[in-house]
Amino acid sequence: MITIDAKDMHYKELNKIIRENIASGIKNFFLENVNGQYYIGDGIKGDDITITVNGVPGNDLGVFMDGPSIIVNNNVQDNVGNTMNAGKITIKGDAGDVVGYGMRGGRIYIRGNAGYRIGIHMKGYNTQIPVIIIGGKVGSFFGEYMAGGVMVLLGLNNSEELAGEYFGVGMHGGTIYLKKKIDFSKYSKEVEFLEANDEDMIFLKKYLIEYANDFNLQAEDLINGPFYKIVPSSARPYAHLYTSSAL
Predict the structure, then answer these.
(1) How far apart are CA 238 and CA 72, in angstroms?
(2) Cα–Cα dist 193/116, whole Å
(3) 45 phi and psi angles, rounded to 5 deg
(4) Which pLDDT score is estimated for 126?
(5) Which residues, other chains included, contact 162 with Cβ-Cβ below 8 Å and sequence gap of 6+?
């Protein structure tokens, strides 16, 4: 275990220290006084490595990460988990924009709200299923061009509006689950709004229990009650733009 005081430290120096210590066999890191440093955990491999961040990390936290766990005891900025392959990022505050862009595997759990374009181009890889669970609400373009994986929006902050505009635009794979029923008529016409079935709940249960444990919540409160799901109505939502109607 090692504790690193990141106060006034350049992000390159911080990430160099982390990588050097991983190479020497250190598995657990505690980063203190983090204030906007970029690229923490980027490209790091190994499912036995844990990085705990006290402070607010900068953009691109956990990009290309392949196995480690990152715990942030505060808010995070943009581009968390960009093209993440495996591992887990736990955020005890709010997240910025573009969480999980092109995410191929692993889990991102956010206790609070998240910004715009969450889960865009999220796809999965082979048998990997990327999962994002958000406790609060999100901004516009949620699930834009989503091609695979799972996102769960819980709405625990009792907001009347769970999401902004352009929900699920271009979505052609994956599943979005909602804890609350919403008026979906104003959202994308390329997706279907359904009630989750028993099979869905069996799948979700293990992730919701893990989420509840991470944030000291009652798992029963998350699991009980109806869930709703959004799935794409077509695997090619824009096919009509590129093909002729005349045969």
Answers:
(1) 38
(2) 21
(3) -115, 155
(4) 82
(5) 137, 138, 153, 155, 178, 180, 182
Q: How many CA atoms lie within 13 A of 104 on its CB side?
A: 12
Q: What is the residue type of 51?
A: I
**What is the dihedral sign for C-alpha 213, 217, 220, 223?**
negative
What's residue 27's pLDDT?
97
Closest CA to 60 of 26, 93, 96, 85: 96
Strands 228-232 and 173-178: antiparallel
- Residue 215: closest CA among 113, 111, 114, 131: 111
Locate all alpha helices (DSSP H) within the chain, ordered by sequence.
11-23, 198-214, 219-223, 239-242
Alpha carbons 157 and 159: distance in angstroms, whole number: 6
**Region of 165 on the Ramachandran plot (φ > 0 left; ψ -120 to 50 alpha; else beta):** beta
Four-residue CA torsion sign, 106, 109, 110, 114: positive
CB count within 10 Å of CB 144 equals 22
Whose CA is closest to 4, among 32, 34, 24, 26?
A: 32
* Identity of the residue numbered 150: V
User: Could you tell me if 34 and 6 are in contact, meaning their C-beta atoms sit under 8 angstroms apart?
Assistant: yes
C-beta of residue 113 within 8 angstroms of C-beta of residue 89: no
182 phi/psi in degrees, rounded to 5: -130, 165
Does this model's pTM top 0.70? My answer is yes
Residues of the chain with pLDDT under 50: 240-247
Please report the beta strands in the chain, taking only residues with DSSP state E, as ranges in sequence order: 2-5, 28-35, 50-56, 66-72, 86-91, 107-110, 131-134, 147-153, 173-178, 191-195, 228-232
